[in-house]
Amino acid sequence: MMDKNIPHIVIIGCGFGGLEAAKALAGKPVRITLIDRCNHHLFQPLLYQVATAGLSGPSIAAPIRHIFRRQLNVTVLMGEVTAIHPDRRCISVEGTDDIAYDHLIVAAGATHSYFGNDAWAAHAPGLKTLEDAFAIRRRVLLAFEHAERETDGERRRAWLTFTVIGAGATGVELAGTLAEISRHTLQGEFRRFDSRAARVLLLEGGERVLPVFPAGLSEKARQQLEKLGVEVRTGARVTSVDEAGVTLTESAGTSRIASRTVMWAAGVAASPLGQTLGAALDRAGRVMVQPDLSLPGHPEIFVIGDLAHIDCNGKPVPGVSPAAKQMGRCAARNILARLEGRATRAFSYIDYGSLATIGRKSAVALLGKVQLSGIPAWLTWLFAHIYFLIGFRNRIIVMIDWAWAYFSFQRYARIVIGAWKNARPL
Amino acid sequence: MMDKNIPHIVIIGCGFGGLEAAKALAGKPVRITLIDRCNHHLFQPLLYQVATAGLSGPSIAAPIRHIFRRQLNVTVLMGEVTAIHPDRRCISVEGTDDIAYDHLIVAAGATHSYFGNDAWAAHAPGLKTLEDAFAIRRRVLLAFEHAERETDGERRRAWLTFTVIGAGATGVELAGTLAEISRHTLQGEFRRFDSRAARVLLLEGGERVLPVFPAGLSEKARQQLEKLGVEVRTGARVTSVDEAGVTLTESAGTSRIASRTVMWAAGVAASPLGQTLGAALDRAGRVMVQPDLSLPGHPEIFVIGDLAHIDCNGKPVPGVSPAAKQMGRCAARNILARLEGRATRAFSYIDYGSLATIGRKSAVALLGKVQLSGIPAWLTWLFAHIYFLIGFRNRIIVMIDWAWAYFSFQRYARIVIGAWKNARPL
Hints:
Number of strands of chain A: 27
CATH class of the largest domain in chain A: Alpha Beta
Strand content of chain A: 25-35%
Strand order of the largest sheet of chain A: 5-2-1-9-21-20
Largest interface: A-B, 61 and 62 residues
CATH topology of the largest domain in chain A: FAD/NAD(P)-binding domain
Distance between the termini of chain A: 47 Å
Oligomer: homodimer
CATH architecture of the largest domain in chain A: 3-Layer(bba) Sandwich
Number of domains of chain A: 2
């Protein structure tokens, strides 16, 4: 047990923001309690690879307490934080006593948003956690198994129709990879249908795919998706999702798609924990923070990552991992400044660029003013992601997995856990 | 679709027996339907490594339809066979039409047996499937997390007490690996206790561990287990298992062990599918087959692997993977003999030896009359298991995983899927 007189910093969440904040406090005279609902830090940018059976879960996840085993000022706890009490300077944790803090960093992230249609969640899972990724992998692989069992042509078509809702980075990655799986990975493995006949739809309510990219790169991305075999439909607003498919409204009218496998990549909402802070929230539920990332009226509380709303250079900082990491380091520095009686400093976001992968040798990249697409963008994406993967060993394994997948067109992790009778309903 | 006049062979189960049978029929003028409740063939001898976080699931599992992608006379179906109807020559499959056969190979394997105490299953999971392995991994890792959250010393002890019931190969492997995890892998990662203080008990009702080995090797195995830190208690009969621990009766009397994590490795029972065959069963529910592995009165049905009871050289053939593979090839040959109007041949079992691993550099091996223990046995075990792992790529990945684990004392797959709030009750 550490000296109780040493300032106690509680960090909620060990995503990119919380992880960087705790690391930035290594060797400092503070005691840190890092609490997360999971036992692992997740390399979320590669989560779609787990969902599409390209990587196993442990390849992109590292046990939090292993990361901090040598940083002795960190105590890692696994648990669910249910509320923050700024007035009493403590947090509530499910199943255990409240935990008091001197400084608090809230890095609780974001979750899916179904824009008020929460009933859709059962039919169209989102992709934020390893659990989500395994649920999507299971649905996709079992849909092909259902198709092989099915004798009726129309019902088989519905099992072989995959719909991704939302054409941001996650939606584009999922749709592109699903098209590759049906056209290459599974080709020749079924006796009652040709897997290449599977239909992959990417539905987007807005005017173009990857709306955060310049219009030229959006168009390039669309061309690459269509080349892979994805049906891209922009200006398509989903009005209902159920077990049998989706209904959508386009300029041409309303239509129905019979699709047994639907995935949700359309919206995120900030963690509900933000609501317990008593501060102003933006429309997505993100906490409006001060320039130094602290909570208005509570200089001892910092909110970072996807849960924080802050403007830099006249634009909101995007919910991406480099931004979360930068905020984590900034919050740690500002806590140290307060402890040493110095003034805190305003957060400033350095934008290194944007990358989105589409499939084999297909990607788009925006690096400053440089726009890349195709193979150069894909190589940039590949090396950036391997470089940033936590832990040296994971990097090697992921590289081997990818090299093997690249040359063989195969995917490593095509495993459904559990037996058929537990597999229904999907 | 293949010619309906070609003989139709249905194989139930794609463990070692069913897999070998289907492979042995490659290129033959038959059509094969291979049906399994899972989408993967599992390399069961390494399942304890998945349960103890050393390997990821996909490392020891291969999609069945991928294995048979080029063997065009095989149709793979995922499904649950609910009954066999020898009189009508068909099988019932949950959720679809009955499937008729000309020849049938039943390779449905075995499951855990709690000897009539089925309520124990909820508190002491067994280890037969990937699902089981993930359930055990989750319990073990979460027990340490509970211990770090716990403030009461006695309750923490119960979280840090791990009990394995049954000292056959699986029980010995689990107990040895758990001791290594607490003494090496997790050392220094917790702030509120020393993981090396965790207690691992191995309870065995019989007189010695690994009863299928000669007494001298059993004693060597016991010594190696104790050196790793496992408390071995033989002659200890478990009389109750509940959420809080186990009660056992020894010659010294009845005692109670407070243990929140209990694993079952004490008994197996043959698949209940054997009961629908209308043939005589042994005490473990295995089907008494003819010398050529066929069902008495039904020469078109063969029963193989852990579901079959057959004596060779005056002893029952053991329920191990080499025996299942040999039976699979024998059943396939005998079906071909019948199709060609030749007489079937009796099964003869070739025993290549027995291996059991205990931990790092610890194992016992019986190869003919040669008895090995310690490092020589462990190296034999290591190379045999890597050699027999299905699929070239998996072998490489498993070797890298193991080399890394060996030199770093770390374990790759220490990931609990899902959040804390879904983690309780365990």
